[in-house]
Design a protein that fits this description.
The chain has about 220 residues and is α/β, with parallel strands linked by helices. The protein is about 30% helix and about 15% strand. Helix 1 (about 25-35) packs across helix 2 and helix 1 runs parallel beside helix 7 (about 215-225).
């Protein structure tokens, strides 16, 4: 039986009030997608609105390209899957072995506030299934609680750092800073040098610091399923 993993992508494309566009970060979909699918994992894509999720234009800059993103550019099967993501409200945790959230700035606006997403994460977690988040995606845990306590409380976590946010000059644009939120909600937050690969596993919860951590998060997820 092949394992099944649900990928949840943002549907949000406005970068605050800047007039610029955002969405999901290509590498954070591509690297984990291939790390898992090459090992026979079946991947389903979903987003709050369904259909084509917005891609952060900055993640398509030549400087942001990796082997995985170049492979995705030529992968019609994945591109078709992206055009037709399932609506988040229609997917159920019992149909999958784990859930993975790619980042990009988009999730800070929609998935962080999305009640369907919050419940889905609780359903996976309370049924002993791994939940994984990379870069800005740990931000979707902002309001996720189990038995009245924040899910991240007393858990070892990482996520996009305040200094990385400063580096992309969006500190004053984002609705909240991932590092600050994780600490405020009681997470035991750690990080390494900006833009270096770093992933932490705490039980069934896996978090990665930045785009470079995407594949590492997927590798840890593979071990748990």
């Amino acid at each position: 039986m092949s394992k099944k993993v649900l990928f949840v992508l943002t549907s949000h494309d406005e970068l605050g009030n800047t007039g610029l566009k955002t969405g999901f970060w290509t590498e954070e979909l591509a690297a984990p997608y291939y790390a898992l699918s090459d090992k026979g994992v079946e991947i389903t894509l979903a987003s709050p609105k369904g259909g084509q999720p917005p891609i952060d234009p900055k993640s398509e800059d030549p400087s942001a390209q990796t082997d995985a993103t170049r492979r995705m550019d030529d992968d019609q099967v994945l591109k078709d899957k992206l055009k037709n993501t399932h609506q988040l409200s229609e997917v159920k945790s019992e149909d999958f072995d784990a859930v993975f959230y790619p980042g990009g700035h988009g999730p800070l606006w929609d998935l962080a506030e999305d009640k369907v997403s919050q419940q889905l994460i609780v359903d996976f977690y309370t049924n002993d299934k791994p939940i994984a988040f990379v870069c800005h995606a740990p931000g979707v845990l902002k309001d996720v609680k189990i038995d009245g306590e924040y899910l991240v409380k007393d858990k070892n976590v990482t996520g996009f750092t305040n200094t990385e946010e400063e580096g992309v000059q969006l500190t004053d644009v984002v609705p909240f800073l991932v590092e600050d939120m994780l600490k405020k909600n009681g997470g035991v937050y750690s990080k390494i040098e900006d833009w270096s690969p770093y992933a932490i596993v705490d039980g069934r919860l896996i978090t990665g610091q930045n785009p470079a951590s995407s594949e590492k998060v997927a590798e840890e997820l593979l071990k748990l399923i």
